[in-house]
Amino acid sequence: MLGKGPIKSVLAEELRNSFQMKEGYERDLKALPKGSMSRRSIGGHAYYYLVQRRGKKVVFSYRGKVSEKELRRYEDAKKKRVQYRQLLSRVKRQIRFLKGALRGKEPI
């Protein structure tokens, strides 16, 4: 039968790894371009706006006609942002669980 020592050491190592993963996801999220592109058709022509949140306000910045490369960049960033937020949410739940499992009746 295994004692509490090996199990707690494995849980503590997993907690450290989870903290590192959390920091990595947060760093990757910050590296992505802020906002997303919004397309509006005016007079049959397409114009693009960069949509960003500043505090509680949503701000539309006119970008005019945008290259396909820049559109792809923002579209990819949008997809990655969703993935990183999901991963970040999972790792935060894992951290809460591991902290509770390690705590037991004694401080960590």
Which features characterize this protein?
108 residues; alpha+beta; Helix Hairpins; three-stranded antiparallel sheet; 2 helices
Per DSSP, the total helix count is: 2
User: What is the strand tally?
Assistant: 3
How are helices and strands ordered from N to C? HEEEH
Q: Based on the structure given, which CATH architecture is correct?
A: Orthogonal Bundle
What is the count of structural domains? 1
Strand content: 15-25%
Strand order of the largest sheet: 1-2-3
Binned, the helix content reads: 55-70%
The CATH topology turns out to be Helix Hairpins
Cα(first) to Cα(last) distance is 23 Å
Structural class: alpha+beta
Mean pLDDT figure:
88
What is the CATH domain class?
A: Mainly Alpha
Shape: elongated
Which parts are unreliable, with pLDDT below 50 for 5 consecutive residues or more? none
The rounded Rg comes to 22 Å
Major sheet details: 3 strands, antiparallel
